[in-house]
């Protein structure tokens, strides 16, 4: 205005909000809460299956008007904490007819369907890989060869001038004696101590 008064087209600063504005906001929130609080009447709402109920149509009207964005702002803004309980009540009434399972499934939407498809695809690949592994296992000889290799022990002479040939695994080398693999001589019973 020309007289220096507050211009009605300019949004007011939160600190300069008048008592009337606070009352108006509270009345609007209470009106929305009361409209959403009206219980469903099945005798009145005899529509075809799949028709939007009155509650759903009210929610759609709130969405089209931008009221849901305003409620999100009021719920998350630090300076608007005085409206938190009103907003919480309105949000709980918005989801009144919904079960948590349905809401979670809707939230996943196409992403959930794609995830399920990916899981099925991965399971198919895993089954194919397991089948290939089994086929390879069947082609392999089933008996394990116990041949651990032969080693020549240089500097340790056997009968003649040749080096000792050791047929056991290298881990058995510490316990090597010339008697390895020979039958122990048995003493007759009357000669035993």
UniProtKB/TrEMBL annotation:
Domain of life according to the entry: Eukaryota
Annotated Timeless N-terminal domain residues: 12-152
PANTHER family per record: PROTEIN TIMELESS HOMOLOG, TIMEOUT/TIMELESS-2
Keywords noted in UniProt: Cell cycle, Nucleus
GO MF assignments: DNA binding
Protein name: TIM protein
One GO term of the biological process aspect: DNA replication checkpoint signaling
Amino-acid biosynthesis is among the record's keywords: no
Localization per record: Nucleus
Gene this protein is translated from: Timeless_1
Signal peptide: none
Keyword Nucleus: yes
Transmembrane segments: none
This protein's GO CC annotations: replication fork protection complex
